[in-house]
Specification:
Helix content is 27%, strand content 27%. With 339 residues, the chain is α+β, with helices and mostly antiparallel strands. Strand 1 and strand 2 form a beta hairpin. The longest helix has 14 residues. The two termini are 32 Å apart.
């Protein structure tokens, strides 16, 4: 069987609908027995020997002419894993909601005729840029320079924890360089809220408490310290520019959600976050890492892979806080996926 390439679609004649769509989920029926398939589907049929060519072209020529090599790598991998999938083309079966996707992947045992979608798949190469606005409820299929595949699941997230705030008021504190020192009320803030770190070391049971500027600004806003919040915020802006305001917005939202955020420096992130918290004495492992980015942020696949790999390696979820200049936040969780 020879296909015909026209307007970006490969037309297959004869009994193509029965052979390829009705039994195996390829393409779009056009009436009768004819079938339209996307170039990547035609390439897969060529690779299997199910069709003889497209306008006399074999697999090599078709991939070169249509520029579908990366899509083919992903399509074949998912077919090999037992999935039926449809290219996200307007008017194709099952793809009415396919914005920002390259493929709709159906649950194993189902096809485009069932109306159930397992993954909305977006294909990128490792050197492409990924706008953060294109993520969320989408699976990234990243093809590296060796042709290997890594899948990332991206979805919305809502932080939630069990910590209960019990803040004192007017504690004696002062700003020093890029932090604040607290001289009284140390035990309560540290043990009950995991604020700060003891100046004499984490195993010390006395002495002042050093607070990050984020912690100091949040506590000052809630009248827990005798220093003014605007002074702390001004110092924070001096230290790290307007990024401080975005990080403070995220820190505040995490505290208000009942979680306990602490510095994520050792994990290469903005925060490590504890969700199951009562006291420092009963501290469990942090549950997720947060990196603060702007809503127009663009990911480099290599950096995204590094963040997710590191978080997974320490058994944490990787979360990105998309924070605008007004402090509005959208939360995005990214994790490795094996389809």
């Amino acid at each position: 069987m020879q296909g015909r390439l026209e307007d970006g679609v490969v037309h297959l004649p004869g009994d193509a609908r029965q052979r390829f769509h009705d039994s195996r989920g390829y393409g779009r029926p056009t009436g009768g027995n004819d079938l339209e398939v996307a170039p990547v589907e035609a390439a897969h049929l060529l690779s299997r020997g199910d069709i003889d060519g497209v306008d006399g072209m074999g697999l090599r020529e078709l991939l070169a002419r249509t520029g579908t090599t990366l899509d083919f790598v992903v399509y074949k991998d998912l077919r090999d894993r037992g999935f039926y999938l449809s290219p996200a083309r307007e008017g194709w079966p099952g793809v009415d909601d396919a914005t920002d996707a390259d493929f709709l992947v159906y649950p194993r045992g189902k096809g485009p005729w069932d109306g159930v979608v397992e993954y909305r798949m977006h294909v990128v190469g490792e050197r492409e840029s990924i706008p953060v606005s294109s993520l969320g409820e989408t699976v990234l299929a990243i093809v590296d320079e060796d042709g290997d595949l890594t899948y990332f699941d991206t979805e919305g997230y809502e932080p939630e924890g069990s910590a209960v705030e019990d803040l004192p008021s007017g504690l004696d504190a002062e700003l020093l360089s890029d932090r604040a020192l607290l001289w009284d009320g140390v035990d309560h803030l540290y043990q009950q809220g995991f604020y700060g770190q003891r100046l004499y070391g984490r195993n010390a049971d006395s002495g002042p408490l050093q607070l990050s500027l984020l912690e100091a600004a949040y506590l000052a806003r809630n009248d827990a310290l005798d220093i003014a919040e605007p002074d702390v915020v001004a110092r924070g802006r001096d230290v790290e520019g307007d990024r401080f305001d975005r990080r403070l917005a995220v820190y505040t939202a995490l505290r208000e959600a009942g979680t306990v955020p602490k510095s994520g420096f050792k994990f290469g992130s903005d925060f490590r976050v504890y969700t199951d918290f009562e006291t420092v004495s009963d501290l469990s492992h942090s549950a997720f890492l947060v990196r603060v980015v702007t809503p127009d942020h663009t990911f480099v696949p290599r950096d995204l892979s590094l963040d997710v790999r590191l978080a997974g390696g320490v058994r944490k979820r990787m979360v990105f806080a998309l924070t605008d200049a007004k402090g509005e936040i959208d939360w995005l969780s990214v994790s490795r996926l094996t389809p």
